[in-house]
Amino acid sequence: MAKAYWINTFRSIRDEKKLVAYVELAGPAMRAAGGRFLARGLPARAFESGIMERTTLIEFDSVDAAVAAYNSPAYQQALRVLDDGAERDLRIIEAVA
């Protein structure tokens, strides 16, 4: 089974306090679901159509594990806390090998 990568970008942040509360809940929820944070923060550089937006990269053992993390009660609670405090783009992709 191939590993999977959760790629989350924040297109805009409307409420910094909600974002902080989300991060406090989302991080532990991802780790409890087997996620391993590989990178997070602003890009060092962006090229072509790239945008300098906050990005998080989390590795999971499989797509199913990443989807289960998203659907977990702990992560859903983090999303409720965020409550329209940010516009995000979230993708889960399977590793090539």
From TrEMBL:
Signal peptide positions on this chain: none
Determine the domain of life of the protein's source.
Bacteria
- Annotated Gene3D superfamilies: 3.30.70.100
Give start and end of each DUF1330 domain.
3-96
Q: Which Pfam families match?
A: DUF1330 (PF07045)
Q: What is this protein called?
A: Uncharacterized protein (DUF1330 family)
Whose protein is this, by species?
A: Micromonospora palomenae
